[in-house]
Amino acid sequence: MAKASFQTVDKCESIGREQHTVVADMDGTLLRGRSSFPYFALVAFEVGGVLRLLFLLLASPLAAFFYYVVSESAGIQILIFATFVGMRVSDIESVARAVLPKFYSSDLHQVTWRVFSACGQRCVLTANPRIMVEAFLKDFLGADSVLGTEIATYKGRATGFVRKPGVLVGKNKADALKKAFGETQPDIGLGDRETDAPFMSLCKEGYIVPPKPEVQSVTIDKLPKPIIFHDGRLVQKPTPLMALLIILWIPIGFILACLRIAAGALLPMPLVYYAFRALGVRVTVKGTPPPPAEKSTGQSGVLFVCSHRTLLDPIFLSTALGRPIPAVTYSVSRLSEVISPIKTVRLSRDRPSDAAMIKKLLVEGDLAICPEGTTCREPFLLRFSALFGELTDQLVPVAMVNRMSMFHGTTARGWKGMDPFYFFMNPSPAYEVTFLNKLPLELTCTSGKASHEVANYIQRVIAATLSYECTSFTRRDKYRALAGNDGTVAEKPLLKPNKVMGC
């Protein structure tokens, strides 16, 4: 028995291992959880939607039966087939890069990580498909090599089957290790089950990781590289029970989302706060918002500069103020523009009339911007930072926070037109709107401050309020990391006049 043959991992010394090579299994070893179902479920939902998740969930009892009665390899093969069959390889890679790292990192085994991170050469040997785990292991854990199950493909799509020699379990793991290392014997082998014994026996030292759910996960600050960008619709890791709840809730949640969106779009803005509250949407207002601009005095409107959470930021700003506030945005979908209860102005690098349009809105009243970028290197913020000096010195920072229990209301990879629906599909979503003090004149361009200095000061004030750390990453950086594009919605000519909630 493997447990009788090897010492437990807590007995392994981690000091002086800089020149050593470690080979570790993944589920139950490098990760605390022994089941890979949640990660297959994430791929299924993010690529194939709720129907693919349902197919995977229905196949999971059969997978469990084969796993425990027939063979571990057969059970994993069923999960791979149910998850991947027909999917584009590029979509799987995208989810592995943008979605899975956050969930994997939250489940790292603290004791195993102590040993794994101490070694100079790190290899992961796993039954999981390599395409699912390689991006996380190499980019965030510093793994030098990843040996995993290879999925079969045809014309850029997964067939649902695996390439020879099959799923890396038992003897296949040992063979893969021999092929990768040749005559060289790795120093440490880490596993958690009997089928890991063959490859662990090929290492100079072997240690078993006992199942202990109470073991703490690795804290974020201990990772070689922090996970800053994350995409994906699901808030929680989809265990079988959570996956079932998601599937059962989505039809109810969609109807509820339509009711909430209709309330926000059709009711007068002073009533939206109360309608949202009646429909389970919590809106918390902090700070003292400025009064509306008085046109009779010639006073220009206030420019609300909001931190960006979802497309709904300006909607909830308007809800908190009890009056519609037009919003300036970088790019939104057509559907978002259609259902928006407020005016939205989409900036374009090619339209010189933007400044005039925004100035007109500020003369008429207040205006909101909710930029995604974090510094003035981003073209969107560069344009806005210039407006700080050209159009108004009435600047009010607004810190926005939202809370969701089931679905994220924003995406970089998917269709942004569904963002409002996903947010409102949460059982009881919440927004917290904090109005900060209006910038004093000495901190605006009127007193000689450079426009980018004003923009970065606003960023620091909002970050301090939310206990966030400012970075040099921009909106473009985020979309390139998560979706492989710059995050713009292309403007296409329309044959007919076509008419979000948000910015």
- What is the radius of gyration computed over CA atoms, rounded to a whole number of angstroms? 26 Å
Q: What low-confidence regions span 5 or more consecutive residues with pLDDT below 50?
A: 373-383, 491-503
Strand order of the largest sheet: 9-15-14-10-13-11-12
How much helix is in the residues?
A: 40-55%
Largest sheet, if any? 7 strands, mixed
**Separation of the first and last Cα atoms:** 59 Å
- Number of DSSP strand runs: 15
Describe it.
By secondary structure, the chain is of the alpha/beta class. The chain contains 19 helices and 15 strands. The strands form three sheets. A seven-stranded mixed sheet has the order 9-15-14-10-13-11-12, sandwiched between helices. It has a six-stranded parallel sheet with strand order 1-8-7-2-3-4, with helices on both faces. The longest helix has 34 residues, at 37-70. Residues 373-383 and 491-503 have low confidence and may be disordered.
Outline the fold blueprint.
Elements: H1 2-5, E1 7-8, E2 21-24, H2 26-30, H3 37-70, H4 72-84, H5 89-98, H6 100-105, H7 110-118, E3 121-129, H8 130-140, E4 145-149, E5 151-154, E6 157-162, H9 171-181, E7 188-191, H10 197-200, E8 205-208, H11 240-266, H12 269-278, E9 282-286, E10 303-306, H13 313-321, E11 327-329, H14 334-339, E12 344-346, H15 354-364, E13 367-369, H16 379-390, E14 395-403, H17 419-424, E15 430-435, H18 451-466, H19 475-482
Parallel strand pairs: 1-8, 2-3, 2-7, 3-4, 7-8, 9-15, 10-13, 10-14, 11-12, 11-13
Antiparallel strand pairs: 5-6, 14-15
Helix pairs in contact: 3-4, 3-5, 3-11, 5-8, 12-13, 16-18
